[in-house]
Amino acid sequence: MTYEKQRQYLMNKYPAIRDLKERARTRMPDVSWAYLQTGTGEEHLLKKNTDAFQQISLTPKFCKGLITPKVETNLLGKTYSAPFGVAPVGLTGLMWPKAEVILAKTAKKYQIPFCLSTVATETPETVGPHAGDMGWFQLYPPREAELRQTILDRAWNSGFRTLVITVDIPTPSRRERTKRAGLSTPPRITPGFIWQGIKNPSWSLGTVKNGLPRLRTIENYSEFNSMMSVGAFVHEQLGCNISWDYCKEVRDIWKGPVIMKGLLHPEDAEEAVKIGMDGIVVSNHGARQFDGAPTSIDALPEIVRLVKGRTAIILDSGIRTGLDILRAISLGAEFVLLGRAFIYGVGALGTLGGDHVYEILKGDLINNMSQLGISDLSELSL
């Protein structure tokens, strides 16, 4: 049966979805993309994150002869082919089946970091071999020490050597547009959900093949294996307003570099240095936690002034282009992470998406370095 015949069959069988095409387009965003596109609250910070980058100008210098930009970057004792990596994204497989594996392969191929989230839809054991020595693991801090140690051991034994502790989740945020889009745990099979599946047959077939997205890393720790039970377990056990003592304990346990992600206040950055963090990620969680926070790029300069040289400084939230990467580095960041860009690429091109985004970002980075008249990232200055 052709796709069109399937669509007609389903629309005839379920009269309630006959008029959903226009509704889906105008009032009912796709569930999977609503999760990725939204911020929190009224979503003012979502736009401010990207707008803030547009306020940063870099002045070119000319007549410098042949320039061959170099973008290799050393960070925490490793050399990466470019100054950017793949940020941790939760529920990644909801946006595209096996997205974590696809992006881990891109990271290994191009020698950039791939950071796997605790609440991704694939396990460290599955993803680790594909990432090779490019794997970072992001920890949503468990309340219980035993659970924390178990997860850390699994990540280490799967080949992940750099740990990223996310600290900016004192409580789950209110993501209103996500709710309006109908995203829930477990997913509700509504007429709108059916219509979205019809409109996106590649996603639907891939999801059928790989199974509905599940939080596979942590589902076995839940009392029951259902999505509802696992979701409740996540809210109860993962993510809280952890203490500096907790962070130091993790620093002491982990045998490789430890990065603290989600800092915006200079005093927090200073405290992270004091407890021995190897790096910090200046981040507002992609505008998905607190709508009243400053943009990451606006918070960066003061943090750089206070702690640069004593810990690695990474930035995420709001970066969309190679030019944005240069802007962040010009203000003192040593490295950046991107989440949405890579997920959009996988959603558009599947297994080729991660590679394509890397090529776009690196190409844009090199082109803009040539426009500026610099051959090395260390030459950047406002």
Structural description of this entry:
There is one protein chain. With 382 residues, this protein is an alpha/beta fold. The chain has one domain (44-175, 232-379): TIM Barrel (Alpha-Beta Barrel), CATH 3.20.20.70. Helices cover 47% and strands 11% of the residues. The protein contains 18 helices and 10 strands. The chain has helices at residues 3-13, 20-26, 31-37, 44-54, 92-95, 99-110, 124-131, 145-157, 176-181, 191-199, 201-210, 227-237, 244-253, 266-274, 296-307, 322-330, 340-349, 353-372, and strands at residues 73-75, 78-80, 84-86, 114-117, 135-139, 162-166, 258-263, 279-282, 312-315, 335-338. The strands form 2 sheets. The protein has an 8-stranded parallel beta sheet with strand order 3-10-9-8-7-6-5-4. The longest helix has 20 residues, at 353-372. It starts with a helix and ends in a 10-residue tail after the last helix. Mean pLDDT is 87; it is low at 14-29.
Shape: globular
Which CATH architecture? Alpha-Beta Barrel
Straight-line N-to-C gap: 60 Å
Strand portion, in percent?
5-15%
> How many helices in DSSP terms?
18
- Major sheet: arrangement of strands: 3-10-9-8-7-6-5-4
Number of structural domains:
1
Kindly provide the name of the CATH class. Alpha Beta
Low-confidence stretches: 14-29
CATH superfamily grouping: Aldolase class I
